[in-house]
Amino acid sequence: MALIGLIIGIALIILGQLVSFTALFITGFAVLTICSGATSFFAILKQQYAKALKTKIEEEAKPPPVNVCPRCGTKAKKNVKYCPKCGKKIQTKKP
Predict the structure, then answer these.
(1) pLDDT at residue 28 tops 80
(2) In this structure, what DSSP letter does residue 44 have?
(3) Which contiguous run of DSSP H or E holds residue 56?
(4) Contact 8/1 with Cβ under 8 angstroms?
(5) What is the pLDDT of residues 54-94, one digit of tens each?
(6) How far is residue 9's CA from residue 6's CA, in Å, rounded to a whole number?
(7) Where are the domains of the chain?
């Protein structure tokens, strides 16, 4: 869409100069300026989206920390302080 606007803007600028119609030239310049800004905006938006998606994928790939009982090896929920199986104090470890 922005590419079509750029083409139309350039065409209006050229046509405005050929027929010596200032309003047409100004309109073409405005369309060209707006579409150039829109093109830049969408390029930056695409770049930021790709960066956020990459960060999200990297975060999801990291395994979460797991609480493991040092006595019996039972895995427990993150916020549990004592093993539900043997009662020993749980240590947080990363797998």
Answers:
(1) yes
(2) H
(3) helix 22-61
(4) no
(5) 999 988 887 766 788 888 888 887 788 888 889 888 866 55
(6) 5
(7) 2-61, 63-95
Q: State which amino acid sits at residue 64.
A: P
Cα–Cα separations (whole angstroms), residue 45 to 55, 59, 81: 15, 21, 44
11 within 8 A of 32, measured Cβ to Cβ? no
- Separation CA 6–CA 39 (nearest Å): 9
Q: Which uninterrupted H or E stretch holds 86? A: none
Q: Which residue has the tokens 């004592």?
A: 82
Residue 36's Cβ-count burial label (10 Å; 0-12, 13-18, 19+) is middle
Counting Cβ atoms within 10 Å, is residue 90 exposed (0-12), middle (13-18) or buried (19+)? Answer: buried
This prediction has a pTM of 0.44
Grouping H, G, I as helix, E, B as strand and the rest as coil, residue 71 is: coil
